[in-house]
Write a structure and sequence with these properties.
single chain; about 260 residues; alpha/beta; six-stranded parallel beta sheet; two-stranded antiparallel ribbon; 9 helices; 10 strands; globular; Polysaccharide deacetylase family protein; Glyco_hydro/deAcase_b/a-brl
């Protein structure tokens, strides 16, 4: 009897080891990578080229009230004045990527009155949705600033997810879609990228890398365009990773709940 029990135990465990995860992403993977970049500055042009070259997907969070405007303060960081992209280039520039909301004029949302919050959300969507060809689904809090009231109004505006700037440094799924904490700022991403590539897990995981494309013009150790390309190249073209936008990712998570 003892040997029969041992044989049964080993058989069950071997079967379990061969089982596939209860859920996998659409390409059969259990890992997913999302790139989320804010503001819509002219450096997005170069970043999009890199994303396209390495076949990854970006979610670009845009401020429609600032298109074409200058950013004088940026000179202190990159040695030249910054600039937002132009309205007429959005559709072609971000083709194949997600156009998302970042508010109309980029105020911090924490403590902002309800009327202004509604305006910032609705006006940005009114301008961007026709260019996108469909309602926007993703949002990133300007300056990483938000509170409970802001989260409620973002949800009421029809947006399905809202990214913060609070890095988790882990690969867990988002628990609150209106307070989606990313994995890591791109400046500190490389060690976690290597860890994620090596990860073997039967449960679903996700890595979200975020920041601003203009930072690659800083020309510092982990904020330069060589680093940007190396980071994207390192994480790209892996058969066991799903490269996806924030909106499509949340849509998938919702679908498997049904």
């Amino acid at each position: 009897m003892k040997y029969i029990f041992i044989l049964y135990f080993l058989t069950i465990n071997l079967c379990l080891a061969d089982e596939k995860p209860i859920h996998s992403y659409p390409n059969g993977a259990t890992k997913a990578v999302i790139f989320s970049y804010d503001d819509g500055v002219i450096q997005d042009r170069k970043l999009v080229e890199l994303f396209n070259q390495y076949h990854v997907v970006g979610t670009f969070n845009l401020n429609s009230g600032l298109f074409g405007k200058k950013l004088p303060w940026m000179e202190a960081f990159i040695g030249k004045q910054g600039e937002y992209i132009n309205l007429d280039e959005i559709k072609s520039l971000y083709k194949g990527h997600e156009i998302a909301s970042h508010s109309y004029s980029h105020p911090g949302f924490a403590g902002l009155n309800e009327a202004e919050l509604r305006f910032q959300l609705s006006r940005d969507q009114q301008i961007l949705a026709p260019i996108n060809g469909s309602p926007l689904k993703s949002f990133a809090y300007p300056l990483g600033s938000y509170d409970n009231a802001a989260m409620q109004l973002v949800k009421q505006a029809g947006l399905t997810n809202a990214r913060t700037t609070n890095d988790t440094h882990n690969f867990e799924l988002p628990k609150n879609y209106m307070e989606w904490n990313p994995t890591v700022h791109h400046e500190k991403a490389m060690p976690l990228v290597k860890q994620y590539i090596a990860l073997k897990s039967e449960k679903l995981t996700v890595m979200m890398i975020w920041e601003y494309a203009w930072e690659f013009d800083k020309k510092t150790q982990n904020n330069n365009w060589d680093y940007a390309e190396k980071l994207i190249r390192t994480v790209s073209n892996k058969n066991d990773i799903w490269y996806v936008s924030a909106a499509e990712y949340i849509q998938f998570l919702e679908s498997i709940k049904q």
